[in-house]
Here is the input.
Amino acid sequence: IRNENDALSAGAAAFYAPGPDVLCILRFIRGEQDLFGTPASDGAFLIAVNRSESPRLAVADLWLDNAGLTGAELAAFKAKDPARGVCLLTGEEIRIDSGLVRLSLQPGAAHIFRLT
Here is the structure.
């Protein structure tokens, strides 16, 4: 999956910890250029992991301005304004509203959501 999607290896990255033992990573490319200035395919992905042995509910704010994106990167992501995501591993769908995403994660779960 990583080799097929440029954003997962060379896209801008933001990191979130929206709950106990929950980690989310946003990776995206906009403007057909990766972080190194190399031509790359546009795309946005949210990786969500529950490290706990218990189910977790978490809300991640993807528009946070202190998660690791530059001001320009955050503005580019907000302009894209994705409304949904589909997990490339399970087919599960999530909805995103103004940057907020609610996640229901099973114990030990990992998801890679393609955002659109």
